[in-house]
Amino acid sequence: RKQPQEKIRTMYWLGIDIGTGGSRALLVDEKGKLIAGFTAPHEDIRMERPLWAEQRPENWWDAAQAAIRGVLQQAGVSGDQVKGVGLSGQMHGLVLLDADNQVIRPALIWCDQRSQPQVDFIHQTVGRANVVAHTANPMLTGFTLPKLLWVRDNEPQNFERARKVLLPKDYVRFMLTGVHATEVSDASGTGLLDVVTRRWSSAMIERLDLDASLLPEVKESADVTGTVTRAAAEATGLKEGTPVVGGAGDQAASGIGNGIVHTGVASCTIGTSGVVFAYLDRPHYDPQGRVHTFCHAVRGKWHVMGVTQGAGLSLQWFRNQFAPGTDYDTLMAEAQKAPPLSHGLFWLPYLMGERTPHLDPIARGGWIGLTAKHGRPEMIRAIVEGVSYSLKDCLGVIENMGVDIQSVRASGGGARSPFWRQMLADIFGRGVATLENTEGSAYGAALLAVAGTGQYGSVEELCSVAIRETECLIPNVHESAAYERGYEVFSILYPTLKPVYSLIQQMA
After folding, report:
1. Which helix (H) or strand (E) holds 226?
2. What is the pLDDT of residues 117-160, one digit of tens each?
3. CA nearest 57: which of 82, 11, 90, 12?
4. CA distance 307 to 273
5. Angle at which helices 328-335 and 376-400 pack, to 10 degrees?
6. Stated pTM of the model
7. Beta-carbon neighbour count of residue 273 at 10 Å?
8. Residues labelled as active-site residues
9. How far, CA to CA in Å, does 180 sit from each of 77, 167, 174, 217?
10. CB-based burial label for 52 (10 Å; 0-12, 13-18, 19+)
11. Are 342 and 378 in contact (CB under 8 A)?
12. Which residues of 353-392 are buried (b: 16+ CB within 10 A; e: fewer)?
């Protein structure tokens, strides 16, 4: 008599992205097909002073739990069907834990710009050229290290209590696994990683008189870092013992989700910040430090990226201040009522200082060219154009490094708008493609979980199966010519206004 065959249960992989505005959880199958997604919102950023930005790590964990439970329920999947977990998140944030693994103070997040004195101290102590030699990047206020030194200088009682420094997604990893760990892509944005050797820089640690035990272990992105604890299983609905891989910082994870795992193609991600991201076979950096060279989430590879601090943030700011409750599709429809170049109105998207290409934490945003003729459509369109010009700045620096870019893949919230994607194609002067899956960071985290605990030999092999382009918008000749003229003007505005920014900063 035949025994009844046991039903084979379908297995899934979970990706979690700890963003700025919320935590998103996704489930994919073994071929990277998206099954379900769920987002839990975060509290608003705390900005007690201009250019300060903080969030509570405990709120990230609350949102992560809600997102995990939400996606499992939405998909009708039980925790024991999840074979692996991948993490992604906003980069550069400073999470300090005490001896009892309790959060000491709110995290200074990526867009916090208060630490210029600490950047100056690092340059004086280590030397600008040595900083680049040790880390492959210039030191910036946005990085984690200056934030840590700010706490040491301004809150010595909190610094003395600190026993571990974690990045945002790695705090959630700790809550899931009880392990203090990070991985190479996110660690690259701390200012403490030797990006070439993919290890913490002993030279930076020693010269700045830091305790190396503050730093977590560094893994490759697809390596298993720990497993879900019993307490985390009860909190999330996952199964105890489920492996959690290293994952990646949001931009490297988005690079995986966009299939940027070979040369010739770049991605342009428009979230709160905007990023142009390209693959590197070997480490190579801009001598002026206008873009970042970081470890990729692909084992033994690197990437280069330019960052616009206030991309989607510019549109979000406009909506919150002048059109509360209005959805972004409505704003985009309004922008389309204005012509290209917005009747000579320009937007500088420097609401939180700027990285690429200016490296200026005190740069300020604003409209230039405003007249009594301009209305809301021109103001909104100018915002979209200004952010796009700033992303063209990023693309130009990367190409000037000799990186080959034939096409661009768009992702992030802004890229959901066909209007904005077409504008990017017109301003970039090349095709802008969209993918079958536009999830970005959370999707990349899920793919890293599949690569680390599934049947694939590498991330590249998995991406060749999972990533498919669905559309490519070609530049319109007339609009591209107009935007070339607009970009010439945009390029003049920052250097013209730069002397004013320091005067304004003194009034803040």
Report:
1. strand 224-227
2. 999 999 999 999 999 999 999 899 999 999 999 999 999 999 99
3. 90
4. 7
5. 90
6. 0.89
7. 25
8. 250
9. 29, 10, 6, 7
10. middle
11. yes
12. bbbbbbbbbbbbbebbbeeeebeebbbbbbbbbbbbbbbb
